[in-house]
Write a structure and sequence with these properties.
about 140 residues, mainly beta, SH3 type barrels, 5-stranded mixed β-sheet, 3-stranded antiparallel β-sheet, 11 strands, about 45% strand
């Protein structure tokens, strides 16, 4: 799994873990009265701390950083597949504009018309269209 982190600190509780602040898709609607029962999955992007134990293999610096940035909206959509036709588009969540993810893979659909960035969202492979991101160099 690849995640972009905003902060990195040693666990103040003394566990020896390194804590990484990341954007993460949290499925927090399951117990909401208005949650659609026919929905298989929907997550909101939220800041979370990921604890990594000492000795865990961590590689920093691989992938493309992308910041979600959907014009005219406070949030950008996150999809289950990189498919633009209406029959295959599967919305799995959203995250606020400015949320940063690392993408280690891109898919180009229909020639150069539609570019998608793969991100990790709640331990799932997810996709965001290039039209909803800004690549951070």
């Amino acid at each position: 799994m690849s995640y972009a982190y905003l902060a990195k600190v040693k666990d103040p509780a003394g566990t020896g873990d390194t804590l990484y602040e990341i954007w993460y898709g949290e499925d927090d609607h399951v117990h909401d009265p208005g949650y659609p029962t026919d929905s298989l999955y929907y997550a909101d992007g939220k800041l979370a701390w990921l604890a990594v134990p000492p000795g865990t293999d961590v590689t920093e610096g691989s992938g493309t950083l992308v910041s979600l940035n959907l014009s005219g909206s406070a949030t950008a959509n996150v999809y289950g597949d990189p498919i633009t036709d209406n029959t295959g588009l599967f919305l799995i969540g959203d995250a606020p504009n400015g949320a940063v993810f690392v993408s280690t893979r891109t898919v180009i659909e229909d020639g150069a018309t539609n570019v998608w960035y793969e991100i990790n969202f709640n331990h799932r492979q997810a996709w965001v269209p290039a039209s909803e991101v800004t690549v951070i160099h």
